[in-house]
Amino acid sequence: MDCLFCKIIADEIPSTKVYEDDKVLAFKDINPMAPVHILIIPKVHIEGANALDSDNVGVVSDIMLTARRIAEELGLSEGWRLVTNVGEHGGQTVKHLHFHLLGGKKLNTELA
Ligand code: 5GP
Ligand code: ZN
Fold this sequence. Notes:
Elements: H1 4-9, E1 17-20, E2 24-28, E3 36-42, H2 58-73, E4 80-83, H3 87-90, E5 99-103
Antiparallel strand pairs: 1-2, 2-3, 3-5, 4-5
The structure holds guanosine-5'-monophosphate and zinc ion (ZN).
């Protein structure tokens, strides 16, 4: 499948991995917007949040828990943010569900 993040999962494209298990991969964003900017993705290809349903939504719990654990490991005790962009208006450029874990500074409060 011609999907950038599936290629990262398959190690066809290199990435700086932060965490991996059978369901989830976390790796550093190539163009960081904050001192900590990690992408957390399901290993199964899901196009985005619009493609979630009752059969595949469980992976969002795994991603949320992974985010919480990474934030703790990286010492983001003062706070962090988890964001998913959906579709063109949401600013989604890669069509494989991903969550941005951002932190390491006081983040902008303006979300849109
Ligand atoms: P989106 O804009 O779809 O929400 O987020 C896609 C993210 O993927 C962007 O923040 C972008 O910097 C990141 N990205 C795009 N290509 C690559 C890549 O080849 N490697 C890594 N590590 N991140 C990438
Ligand atoms: Zn994919």
